[in-house]
Amino acid sequence: MTSEREAFVHIQLPGKLDTVPAARLAVQTLPDGTSIGRFRYGDRYLARPDAVALDPFALPLAAQVFEFTALKGIPGAVRDASPDAWGRRVIEHQLARAPADLSEIDYLLHGPQDGAGYLSFGLSPVPPVPRRPYNRTHQLADLIATAEAIEEGRATSAQLLERMAPATSLGGARPKVTIEDGEVLWLGKFPEKADRVNLQRIEHATLKLAEGCGLAVAASRIEPVGAQEVLLVRRFDREHIAGGYLRYGLVSALTALGIDEGHLDRTRWSYPLLADQLRRWSEKPREDCAELFRRMVFNAAITNNDDHPRNHALLRTARGWRLSPAYDLVPVPLVSQERRDLAMTAGQFGRAASRYNLLSQVGRFGLSPEEANVHFEDIARSVARWREVFFECGVNAQDVERTAGAMLPQCFFATEPVAAP
Ligand SMILES: Nc1ncnc2c1ncn2[C@@H]1O[C@H](COP(=O)(O)OP(=O)(O)OP(=O)(O)O)[C@@H](O)[C@H]1O
Ligand SMILES: [Mg+2]
User: Fold this and answer.
1) Which end of the chain is less congested by CB atoms within 10 angstroms, N or C?
2) Across 116-130, 151-165, 171-185, 306-320, which has the greatest mean pLDDT?
3) Is a pLDDT exceeding 60 seen at residue 387?
4) So what's the pLDDT on residue 171?
5) Separation CA 331–CA 404 (nearest Å)
6) Which residue is closest in CA terms to ligand 1's atom 7?
7) Between vectors from CA 332 to CA 329 and to CA 335, what angle results, nearest 5°?
8) For the purposes of burial, counting CB atoms within 10 Å of the CB of 387, is it exposed (0-12), middle (13-18) or buried (19 or more)?
9) 188 CB less than 6 Å from ligand 1?
10) Can you tell me whether residue 328 is helix, strand or coil?
11) Shortest-distance Cα residue to atom 13 of ligand 1
């Protein structure tokens, strides 16, 4: 049987506090399981002088129907506002429904009011009203207990589940919520029972290390909750002004690269290709391409091999699209000193996290070989101070030692590929 579901897409325009209807998305599912999404901006939205395109290339402002068959019919810029793996688990738990019984439109409609970016979804052209106040820091202990119950599939109160409504969207499996503290919104990342190290402290210290390397990084701090610690990362897609929070647009690098999440598109997970896209999307392409290059080198220096395209994003403020601040930076201690790979292609030798590869296509990032060399040396020098930064950030000695295998491995400095044995 063919079925059709629809949702209205609402937007809080950058710089504005009110939310307005922008478009209608209908997804038709054919008997063979294929989905076709049809997206159309509303005429009234198109007539607004301040209307923005959700994706300047795949969804330009035009009075026409855009059709999508990838991603179950959901355009990338919309998918980026839908709940992530963790958020989906919370929604399934809340609705007591199996994933197979829920469509992509269900996930959109049950997504959080504090979701990533500036979009929200509803069944009518009237924008949804806020359902609840933000979580506050004093509620963290209850929220951690609820996350554990969800992970273990245990029952919890409906009220607490509502409070766990997924915080952000662009991927990620660890439990997290949005927390308001004063007039700032934070993304709270929780410990997990299976953790062998204090990942919150390690991530916090790594963000500070990246900042010390001159990267643009999301602000963070640690919030103690009983014997545990929560990492609070300041949400860069929200900004408080008199009267409320502004929301900014957020799309993942997957969307900017125009690719699906599946492994078929893996060949296009690439820093140089993302730099090409930044040249089209960004208001400051030179700065953003150089910044992307430095992030790539930093990820190689600390063996952050989880640098996939959902861990890079573009942010749209009232001044247009820019590369977002860096987030989700975690060093991964590995044994091999000879060869380590990033998640994305870095240069002409594929994903190799080594100098010879990182410096092989610097022109794609708008850099001269000399400029790129200076960035590489600067980052290597700053990362060499990592123990100091980690201790300053309160990482304990055991966790510092456990991290050592990630930092500045021999292969990072290799100037040529190792010969095959
Ligand atoms: N500071 C931030 N402001 C706004 N959105 C953010 C911020 N940090 C992360 N996000 C969004 O939330 C998503 C999930 O966050 P993050 O990547 O840190 O968690 P995660 O992937 O679950 O972490 P992990 O890889 O440790 O499981 C990101 O993909 C990004 O879209
Ligand atoms: Mg992530």
Assistant:
1) C
2) 306-320
3) yes
4) 43
5) 9
6) 235
7) 160
8) middle
9) no
10) coil
11) 170
